[in-house]
Every structure is written in structure tokens, then in C-alpha cells.
Fold this sequence. Notes:
Aspartate Aminotransferase, domain 1; binds pyridoxal-5'-phosphate; about 15% strand; Aspartate Aminotransferase, domain 2; 12 strands; single chain; about 40% helix; globular; alpha/beta
Amino acid sequence: MNTVDLRSDTVTQPTPAMREAMMAAPLGDDVFGDDPSVNALQEKIAALTGKEAALFMSSGTQSNLCGMMAHCGRGDEYIVGQNAHTYRYEGGGAAVLGSIQPQPLAQDPQGLMNPSDVRAAIKPDDPHFARTRLLCLENTWNGHPMPAAYLDEMAELARGHGLALHLDGARVFNAAVADAGPGGDVVAALRAITGRFDSVSVCFSKGLGAPVGSALCGPRELIERARRWRKMVGGGLRQAGLLAAAASHALDHHVNRLADDHALAQRLAQGLAAIEGLAVRSAQTNIVFVDVANGRGPDLLAHLERQGVLATGLIGLRFVTHLGVDVAGIDRALAAVRGFFDQAPSGQAPRPSGAAVY
Ligand SMILES: *Cc1c(COP(=O)(O)O)cnc(C)c1O
């Protein structure tokens, strides 16, 4: 029985066509700047996001780090959501490696910061304070596309205070597909998002289905600064065109199909919402969060795993759809969840103490 792996959209395998594109890619040494496949990818993603230049990166973490270090120097500060990836899930790299002070702020359940909190956090020019330089947003956030009005407000706020604006757009293509709606212009929706930001980091290895890689997009001068940091953190890859070709293939073939992932997430969310004991939190793009009553989340996760259905449980149960799952897989996941709640609770083995934090 195949596993239905809904832990993340990072678990996809390259499709046969993607592997063919990788095999056929012309290669060079990218540290010398002469890998044609890397250069083609960088031009493609820069054009798509409407930026002057782009730089292929090993990971989203590396891309955000080099972006933040290109924007900020030692003793500068970036404002960021308390639960944002760049603050919470990247090992504190901006502070550790960049000497950039984070100023984390509370976010509402949709991931939005309060503009008045942001305004109040911007430090005056005074030697007591770090220099506030950068505002960092994330779209999608936990599967939520950011509302246009919020992005506008934040962009205006940043501009009004001389702050640069960086987007952690690991899943910005999911946001663009959701914003565009059925039959809409995804590239126009993408540029409507990215146009508000000075720099944007995009992941190819999430819903787009490439095995490795991200890109930092922005003004040429910023990208050249980021290139120095990328070399320093070990991201100067040589015949990286092998990987860039996969990302290029993903941009050509896997963008519009993200709508399929969103539809699968909807199907899953609707099925889960009908099950007593579960509260579904979000399913606007490809991520579904579920709260499980009575602290039974870890038991449900373990049950699912025994049924060959994988999810994660860091902040509520999380299911992520991607090109490696189909309707049958979603229906199997739903059946496995129903099976858990159909069992008599007394039939459950007691939960061992000291198990994973959840
Ligand atoms: C996945 C992700 C990243 C980057 O992750 P890597 O695993 O380093 O590629 C950054 N931001 C968000 C929101 C992400 O989901």
C-alpha cells in the first residue's frame, strides 16, 4: 500500500519529465557565472516576479538569510511576525550570522501584524536603539494568502518610514493562484504581490515540485550583495544547472496545476469538517490545519501513520497537498481519520507520558 504523505509539499519526487529536463540541461560552473541553465532560470524567475535580477539558492532558508543580510548590516533590525518562518524556523540565522536584531511582533490567526504595532516598533534614530531597516512578510502564511489591502498598508508603512520590504514567498505561487481565481491571470496576480516588495524569496522545492532550490529576486545591486553572502554561507554551487533545470521545468509546467492541490485541500477540509471532534482552521491554498478535541492529536497522528497516512503535528495537525497526492489519496486519508473516531475511545491504548510536544 502506498503511503499518502501529507506532511509537506516538500516531499514530492521529480516527475519523469522533470528528470528528463535535468538530464538534458546544459551545464557550466555557476560560481564563474557560466551555467546556462542557472542563468536561464534566474532570468525566468526575475521576469515572472517583475524584478531586475534573481539568484538561485540552495534553500529558502539560505535565500531569506542572504536577502536579509543584503538589506541589513550589523546592528540593524528587521520587523517580523512572531511566528514567521524567517524568525522562528530558520535557526535565528539573521541574528547569528548577520548580527541583525529581530523585532518580532504578534500576528493574528491569519498571520497579519497590527500596523500600529509595526509603527510603534520602528525605532527613532538614537544610539540607544538598533536601526530599523527592514519589514519582513510571508505569503502564503500557514496556507493563508495575504489580503491585498494588508499588503498595500504594510508597503505604504514601510515606504513612509524608509524601510525596505522583503517577502518570504516560499509559497507565493500558491498565493498567486488563489488570488487569480479559476481561469485568472496567475502571473499578473504574482506581480501584484511581488511588485509591492523590494525583494522576494521563492521556493521551487515546495508546491512547484522541484527537488531542491529557491531564488532571491530583487534589484540588481541587492542581488550582487546577496551573491557575496551566498558564497560565504557555502551556497556557491558549481554545475547547479542540473537543479536549476528542474526548477525551470516546474515554472513552465507546475504553476497552474497548484489549483489542483488547492482543490484537493478543499476536499480534505470539507471531509474533515464533517467529523465530530475536529475543527478545521484553514484551507485556502494547499495547507489544512486541524485542531483535535481532547488532546487526541498525537494519537490520531499515530493511528494515521499505521494506516499509511502521514501528517505533522507541530501546531495542530497539518495536512499539505501536492503533486504527489490525488483524490484517491485524500479519500484514503479521510477514511483513516474517520476510522480513528469510529473506534470506541476506551479501545485506545493510553497515551504514554512524555511524548512529543504538540
Ligand atoms: C519552507 C519555507 C521556507 C524555506 O525552507 P527551506 O526548507 O530552507 O527551503 C521559508 N519560508 C517558509 C514560509 C517556508 O514554508
